[in-house]
Protein 1
Amino acid sequence: MSEFWERFAFYGIRWALVLYIVAQFHGGSPSGQAAANLTYGAYLALVYAGAIVGGYVADKGIGYQRAILVGAVFMAGGLFMIALPDPRMFKLGLATIVVGNGMFKPNISTIVGKLYAVSDERRDSGFTIFYMGINTGAFLAPLFTGWLANSVFGSDGMPAYKVVFISAGFGMLVSLLWFSMGRARLEGIGSPPPDAPGMQRVVYVVLGAVLVVPLVYLLLAVGGKNLQLVLTVMFLGLAVLLMREGIRDGRVARDKTIAMLIIFVVNIMFWMFFEQAGSSFTFLADNIVNRKIGSFTFPTAWFQSVNSGAIVGLAPVLAWIWVALARRNVNPSIPRKFGLGLLFNGAALLLLMYALSSLIDPADHKIPLWTLVAVYLIQSVGELCQSPIGLSMVTKLAPVRLVGLGMGGWFLSTGIGNNLSGIFASEVSGESGLTTASALGGYTFGFWALLLAGAALFLAAPQINKLLHGVK
C-alpha cells in the first residue's frame, strides 16, 4: 500500500505535466509544446538516473527504511511545490521529486525482496502482490485526478491542474504515513547498517539531498540535447567499466557483458517511442482525438490508465502464452522477445499513421477515440514482451562483482530513452505545436525505425544467443 500511494502520486500527475506547462507558462500557445516535451523527457530521465544514487545511499548509508521515509518527504514537498504558479518553482519542485523518488523507488522494491529467503516459495507471490499495488495505483490515479481537474474543480476546457498536483502530494503523505505506521512489522528488515544506529547519517543524507536539488534543477533547465550529452557520456563510461570487468573475468563473462549492452541499446530505443504516452500522445489526445461519447467527454487523463489496466489484465495471458509455447519448444528466445517489444511498439505507431491519414473526420478534423486507446493497448503488449525480463537478465549477465553497476546501467538506459522521447516529441510538435501533419510525419519515422530495429534484432538473435552462453 505504501507503493500504491507512491505510484498514485507519480502517475496522478503524469498526464497533466505537459498540458500544465503549456497552459500556465506559455499562455496556452501551442508553441510551448516543444519546451514542455523537453522538460517532461528530462524529468523522467533524471527520475531513473536518480535511482542509482538512491540505492547506493541506502546500501552504504542509512538503510532502506530510512531512505524510503526521507524520499517520501522530498517527493511530497516537490509535489506541493509544482502547484505554485512560477516556472522556476515548478522546475525546483520537479527536481525535488526526482531526488525523493531516487531514494524511495529502488529501496522499497529491495525491501520486498528481503522479506523472503531466496528459496522461499512465497517470494514470487509476494512480488506479484507488490506488482499489483504498483499497477493499481497507476491505474486509479489518472482516473481520480482527471475527475478532480475536469469535473470537480475545473472543466474540460479549463482543467484545475494545481488540484492534480496537490492531491498527488496528499497521496504521497499517505504513503509516508502508511510506511511509518507499518515499519514495526518489518522486524528490522531494511534497518540502518550496524555502524549507523543513530540519526547523524540521516541528517547528512538530508543535507546532501538538499544540495543535490539545485544540480538536478540545472539539468532540468538545460534539458534536451544538453542533458542527452551528459547521459551519453555517463553511459559510455559505464559501458567501458563493465566491458573491462567482463574481459578480466574471461571469454564467457565478456560475451555476456556484450549481450547485456546490446539489451541496453534496445531498451533505449523502446522507451524513446513508448514514452510518447506522457508527451506527444497527450497533446494528440487533447487536440486531435475526438473524445466525445454522446454528451460525455472522455478526459485526457483517462488515457493514462489504459496502460496499467492492460498490464494487469494481459500479464497472466502473456505468461500463459510463453509457457504454452515452451511446451511446444517454440518459445521465442530472449533477443526475439525484445524484438517483439520493438515491433509491437512500431505496430502502435502504424495504427496512428493509418488513423491520421485515413480516419480523419472531415467535420472536426479529429481521429476516433478508439484508435488512441488501441495504441496504448498495443504498446502494453510490447512492454510485457520486454520490460519484465530486463531486470532479471541484468542480474544474470552482468560481471559478478559489478551487478549493482549493471543494474544502474539498465536504469540509465531507460532514462536515456525517456530523454530521447522528449526530444523526439519536441520535434514532432515543432514551433507551432502538434498538428495532424507533424504527428503523421513523426510517427511514420518512429514506425520505420522500430520496424527496422525489431527486424534486425530477430535476424541477429542466433548470434546474440551464442553470447548468452545458455542463460535463459
Note: Strands lie at 289-290, 292-293, 296-297, 367-368.
Protein 2
Amino acid sequence: MAQWTAWKRGPQGSRDLEFEDGRRLVADFYVDASGFRSELLGKALEEPYVSYDKSLFCDRAVVGGWERTTEPILPYTTAETMDAGWSWQIEHEHHVNRGYVYSSQAISDDEAAAEFRAKNPRCRSPCGW
C-alpha cells in the first residue's frame, strides 16, 4: 500500500492526498484512522490536540484475541459491561479480537489485565494501550 506524502488544500477548500507513487485522491470527507499519530488532523492540518479526559473516563485498554476454531462467526460486534468499563469482541474468519476499555481512575492496569484474562480464558496474553 502506497504511503501518502502530501495533503493539499485547493482554492475551493478541497483537499488532495498525494501518494508516493504519484496518485492523487480528492474527496469531500476524510476519516483520520491513524490513532494517536493523528496523521491528517494533527500533522497535516496542524490542529491542536484537545483532551476530553474530564468527560471521557475510559482512558486505557487491554486487547487480545485468539485463533478461531469451530465456533460460528458472529456477524456483529459484541459489547458488554465490565467492572470499570466495557469490552468489545470483533469476529473475523480466522481470528477473534477482544478488548477491554476501562477507567484508570477506577482500576489499575494489572487489575484490568487480570479481569480481562479471567473473562477471556482463550485469549492470548493481553497487551495494554
Note: The mean pLDDT is 85.
